[in-house]
Amino acid sequence: MSESNKRAMRIRGAALTLLALVFGFAVNQSAQEKRWYKGNTHTHTINSDGDSTPDEVVRWYREHGYNFLVLSDHNYLTEVDGLNSVLGAANKFIMIKGEELTDEFQKKPIHINGLNVKELVVPQHGDSVAGVIQNNVNAIRKVDGVPHINHPNFGWAISASDLKAVKNNRLFEIYNGHPQVNNLGGGGMPGLEAMWDDILSTGITLYGIAVDDAHNFKTPGDRTKSTPGHGWVMVRAASLNAGEILRAMEQGDFYASTGVTLRDYQADGKQIAINIAPSGTSKYTVQFIGRWGKVLKEVTANPAVYTFNGDEFYVRAKVIESNGKAAWTQPVFLNK
After folding, report:
1. β-strand pairing of 94-96 with 261-267
2. The pLDDT of residue 26
3. Largest CB tally within 10 Å, which of 116, 153, 205, 213?
């Protein structure tokens, strides 16, 4: 080989090495750009029917490791700019504006949270349960807010059929920490997970969130009341600001939890992989769930992996902890 060819090969090799370093850094940088943020999108203060001031409520969540919080008082929009300026370190904790739009149809309670709305939205009413939901969702969207439908089984108000009829909504509560919202169903009425699978099985994209719906901060140990710390979301976002957090949620890049923490969760065209952060002596079972709520696979390994075989319509996962805590990942659609 001539000296000129050897020199060309050395130059080409150096260039490839440089490209690898550059692109490798870009990949690593991209992976590091997103991180997990813990938040609650449903809680109350004395501005509606809570027992504590906004300052007291915010303090509780900051002191318990949350990164963001929505104060969602009934038909009341609490101003958070002052709270955020007092909080200071926006890279650690932020407040997001919100309200619980509180409406009804034939005495059935219909509650929809508006997250990061520009202004207060008043109840829009309607001529059916689905109509009330749709009118309020539309009103929230009109002021650039993100809606989520609250506790469907509260007062047995909202059915899966009602939810199927709603357009332009991506979020609903599959777990609400209030002690009177009938998360599990009963008496012939489906629980929220069964409703979720019913809706997903028709091809509707809907993501499940867990919330506190906390009202009572003065009596934290009283489970007959709606106390804080029972349900939250872990959102994977590029940064801790309202726009990025809500964008990630509407894209399904989060999981819901009542006490289970995941080290990581990844889904691609081939598989779902879940890495659980163990706690104490707890043990974990992971169910991979498909169309109509069928358990496709159940594993106790950690990490838990499900490889797609290609004929699933969607797959979601539920992590069940041995003391009753749980986490839910969002559905991955394969043949939609």
Report:
1. unpaired
2. 35
3. 213
